[in-house]
Amino acid sequence: PTVGMKVGMLDQEAAVSEVPHKTKGGRPEDVLMSWLTHHYNTQRLIVWPDKPSRPRTVTNLDSDLEDGLVLATVTAAYCPFLSPLHFQDMFTQPSTVSQAYHNTVCLTSAWDKIRLGYSVTPRDLMRPNVVNMLMLVAHLYRNLPSYKLETTVSFMATLNTSETQVVTLENSEESSVTYHIEILPNNSSFEIDDMKDSFVLKNKQRGDITVRYTARSMVKVDAILLLCGACMPPKFGRNYVFRL
User: Calponin-homology (CH) domain location, by residue (predicted)?
Assistant: First the structure.
């Protein structure tokens, strides 16, 4: 069985068109803060249903973001698969510096997993520089929509047997695109044939990524296949996410 997908470069207009909340006629910073506020107040009830963080309106891009909660929720809006792995153990009402630091470590670890392509440390978030934070949020605004789930690839295998599915990519661009391949979380039931961790797709060519599932127990297993092109210079391909 094969799943086909045409790939392309990261398109800023296409990505932004998926953003559900905008402020017309305002400054660019107002658009970003409105976007953050919208996702924070929606996702805080989903990411932390038992102990949600307090509602808030984002009015700046430094102190309102330094505890990591707002940036975690906007990330979860597009990458919900990161919540159980990284965000559920965050302090929703941090009262000490160490608790806020814990939150920012969780957040930056999640960004590292999806290869966000922007260099930032926990201390950068806790001691925010307005210009740097503006650049970071603009990067999230442009890139996070490309992490939305494309489709589900299903596997059916009896115990101790394997089944493969092929994801076929077709590059319609004039330049080669390189993708980093990641399966989240690390799971022995799923593997990439030939143990590839990156994949180069030349211009006007097609290529296959073969995913193998081995049924090691009777329990249903889920995972995420992430093809990350936004972190690979010099040409940046958009990201593709598949549920396995």
Answer: 26-145
Inter-CA distances, 100 with 97, 106, 134, 192, Å: 5, 10, 20, 37
**In the chain, where are the structural domains located?**
28-146, 161-243
Over the stretch 144-194, which tens digit does the pLDDT of each residue have?
988 888 788 888 888 888 888 888 877 777 777 778 888 888 777 888 887
- Please list the alpha-helical segments (H only) found in the chain: 12-17, 28-47, 69-78, 97-113, 122-126, 130-143
CATH tag for 161-243 (out of 2.60.40.10, 2.20.70.100, 3.90.1170.10, 3.30.200.20): 2.60.40.10
pLDDT(17) > 50: no
Q: C-alpha distances in angstroms, 189 versus 93, 150, 210, 221, 244?
A: 37, 21, 14, 8, 11
Return the structure tokens found at 16. Answer: 């932004």
3-state SS, residue 107: helix
Q: Are 99 and 115 in contact (CB under 8 A)?
A: no
What digits encode the pLDDT tens for the residues 205-243? 887 888 888 888 778 888 888 888 765 555 566 788 888
Contacts of 26 (CB under 8 A, 6+ apart): 34
At 20 the pLDDT is: 52
CATH architecture of residue range(s) 28-146: Orthogonal Bundle (1.10)
Strand, helix or coil for residue 152 = strand
* Contact yes or no for 135/168 (Cβ under 8 A): no
**Structural tokens at position 238:** 């958009």
